[in-house]
Amino acid sequence: MTEPLLAGLELGGTKCFALLGRGQTILERVAIPTTTPADTMDRLETQLRDWWDREAFAAIGIGSFGPIGLDPARDDYGFITNTPKAGWAGTDVAGRFGRAFAVPTGFDTDVTAAALAEHRWGAARGMTSSIYLTIGTGIGGGAVVNGRPLRGFLHPEMGHVRVRREDGDGFAGTCPFHGDCLEGLASGPAIAARAGRPAQDIPAGDPLWQPVAGAIAELLATLILTLSPQRIAIGGGVGCGQPHLFPLIRAQVAALLAGYVAGVDAATLDTLIAPACFGEQAGPLGTFALALAAMEDTG
Question: How many CA atoms lie within 13 A of 255 on its CB side?
Answer without folding.
Answer: 11
